[in-house]
Amino acid sequence: MSDLIAYKSNALIEASYKLTLQEQRFLL
Predict the structure, then answer these.
(1) pLDDT tens, 1-28?
(2) Which InterPro entries does this UniProt record tie to the protein (predicted)?
(3) pTM of the predicted model, to two decimals?
């Protein structure tokens, strides 16, 4: 169960990181 939570949190961090990169590229 903890593995699933860790996977979800990791995917969430990765998604937010990609979103931040897209925002930076858009702002620049």
Answers:
(1) 789 999 999 999 999 999 999 998 887 7
(2) WH-like_DNA-bd_sf, WH_DNA-bd_sf
(3) 0.58
User: 13: which DSSP letter?
Assistant: H
C-alpha distances out from residue 21 to 3, 4, 5, 11, 18, Å: 27, 26, 24, 15, 5
- 8/21 Cα distance (integer angstroms): 20
Q: What are the C-alpha distances in Å from 16 to residues 1, 22?
A: 23, 10
Buried-exposed string 17-27: b where 16+ CB fall within 10 A, e elsewhere: eeeeeeeeeee
Helix boundaries (H) for 1-28: 2-27
